[in-house]
Specification:
290 residues; alpha/beta; 15% strand; elongated
Length: 290
């Protein structure tokens, strides 16, 4: 049923024939014009005649892509040096112009940010970010399986929601909750972690709230969501099942909702599985021997 519906949806979507079209599906012209307006507004605080065009912004973005794919190690400025120069980058834009754009680049109007940040901690990029995420799940139809997890994006920026996670290669950064298509690794939906969320219902687990938000555009369509034991719970499985969505994940045996027989693993082999049937959910659980 899902495969048939997905096939019909794919046929109704416009066919992408170039990388530029793919980029503009996610980062459309309206978003580019917003960035240009905000960047020009910031630059003209210093230089009245400073201006950024659409073609220059596109070239700037192209340089960022080239840098990430060709030479991710070392300082960005080395891309214009004699020793480590990247010809494609040097031919696209001069070093000084790149530095100017980077200096003034903005994603919102700084004059109104102080008021917006009172209710939106992500205010500096919130508008562009929400547009990007909306485009991500409107321009792509994921397959049967979607996986939910966290990812730490490293940054040296100082902000109140920067996280420190010792187990990550880059220990400082901004954490995002991400729903991705299992087969293609395409980002279907994402939420930045900004600290305590006042909109989360009292008594609802953070993990459960995150999964429901990430899966909201895909509920009721017969998909399966995969997750680790931070997210998995009986209550979440039931909520998803009520929306014709199944859950596959590991679950910690110390959870109170796990029946006592499943908690005793003495003498059982590794990867031994039990089928638990509390409420209306079937969970496959895996425990290691003591």
């Amino acid at each position: 049923m899902l495969c048939s519906k997905r096939g019909q949806d794919l046929q109704s979507m416009p066919r992408i024939t170039s990388r530029l079209q793919s980029f503009l599906c996610l980062f459309n012209m309206e978003m580019l014009l917003i960035i240009i307006d905000c960047t020009n507004h910031e630059a003209r605080r210093t230089f009245d005649s400073w201006s950024l065009s659409v073609s220059e912004l596109m070239a700037f973005v192209a340089i960022l892509f080239l840098r990430a794919t060709l030479c991710p190690i070392g300082a960005m400025i080395e891309s214009w040096s004699e020793k480590y120069a990247v010809p494609a980058i040097k031919e696209t834009m001069s070093r000084d112009r790149y530095k100017e754009i980077m200096r003034y680049l903005r994603f919102d109007n700084k004059d109104t940010r102080a008021e917006r940040v009172k209710t939106d901690r992500f205010a500096a990029v919130s508008d562009i970010w929400q547009r990007l995420v909306r485009n991500c799940h409107q321009c792509y139809i994921p397959g049967q399986h979607i996986t939910v997890d966290e990812q730490l994006f490293p940054t040296k920026v100082r902000c109140p929601f920067t996280q420190y996670i010792s187990s990550k290669p880059d220990k400082f950064g901004i954490k995002f909750w991400i729903a991705a298509d299992l087969e293609t690794k395409y980002m279907c939906n994402a939420i930045p972690y900004l600290g305590k969320d006042p909109s989360r219902p009292k008594g609802e687990r953070l993990s459960e709230n995150v999964v429901i938000k990430l899966m909201e555009p895909f509920l009721g369509k017969g998909r399966t969501v995969t997750m680790d034991n931070f997210f998995t719970s009986m209550s979440l499985a039931n909520r998803l099942l009520n929306h014709n969505t199944t859950l596959l994940g590991t679950i910690n045996k110390i959870r109170r909702e796990i029946p006592p027989p499943a908690k005793h693993n003495k003498g059982r082999v590794v990867a031994d599985c039990d089928l638990l049937l509390p409420l209306s959910v079937v969970l496959q659980t895996q425990f290691h021997c003591l």
